[in-house]
Amino acid sequence: MYEFQYHKIESVDDAARLFNASEEARYLAGGMTLLPTMKQRLASPDVLIDLGGIASLSGIEKHDNTIVIGAMTTHAEVAASALVQRSIPALSELASVIGDPQVRNKGTLGGSIANSDPAADYPAAVLGLNAQIQTNKRVLSADEFFIDMFETALEEDELVINVSFPVPAAAAYKKFPNPASGYAIVGVFIANTTEGIRVAITGAGGCVFRSIDMEKALSNEFTSESIKDIKTDADALNEDIHASAEYRAHLIGVMAQRAVESL
Q1: Distance from chain centroid for Cα 133
Q2: 70: number of CA atoms within 13 Å, CB side?
Q3: What is residue 1's predicted lDDT score, i.e. its pLDDT?
Q4: Are 238 and 204 in contact (CB under 8 A)?
């Protein structure tokens, strides 16, 4: 490590003020990505602003037909929430298979989506359920939030406050995990929302994305047979030591069919 200032603050306003007063400040949520990159000298903030002391950023509530989850709510809290389990069981199940127990007890919803890791699980639920992201400046839709690998629509000093998940008629998430990290080599979240069928895919591309072809097919006939012949172009997919682009393209179809069959 190296020398930096550490602040644990109690309000969003204080966090933004400290951030804007520094040239290289970073917000700290669960720290699952930031702290390892700091240890490896891939990130070198001069000010670290710990959001863990802001009570208003944690918690799970239901408003009308929407589940609102605070940005600093951990994966373990979402997985164990009776409210989430009753309203959106697929979201609870997704949270329960993120990483390992250590990650689930420290990692946060806001930190996960703000990082936009291409293999993260939460982005699939956010996009699949057409959630709304409340920040300290505005409200962003899921379709406009994720831009690319480790890139979102958030401005530099912008903080995620909470995420509002509309309760779907039905939803399911299936993923093929990396056996070591638990990251999604491919994960598919399918939801029957008030706006129709949505299919969100994580782990395969630069960031989470929707399969419009699958959405159209499932809207006409909600069976696994209706999507079995739909192919995803491998040219646009990730390729690494864990899986080729062609294998990821194949897994998208497999995980999507499993998600449909589970419903």
Answers
A1: 11
A2: 17
A3: 63
A4: yes
What radius of gyration, in Å, describes the C-alpha atoms of the chain? 18
Taken in order 251, 257, 262, 263, the sign of the CA dihedral is positive
Please report the pLDDT score of residue 2 as a whole number.
77
Quick one: average pLDDT of 247-258? 98
Q: For the whole model, what pTM was predicted?
A: 0.95
Long-range contacts of 148-152 (CB under 8 A, 24+ apart): 148/116, 148/206, 148/207, 149/116, 149/117, 149/118, 149/206, 149/207, 150/115, 150/116, 150/117, 150/118, 151/116, 151/207, 152/113, 152/114, 152/116
Q: What is the pLDDT of residues 47-99, one digit of tens each?
A: 999 999 999 999 999 999 999 999 999 999 999 999 999 999 999 999 999 99
Structural domains in the chain, CATH included, are 1-53 (3.30.43.10), 170-262 (3.30.390.50)
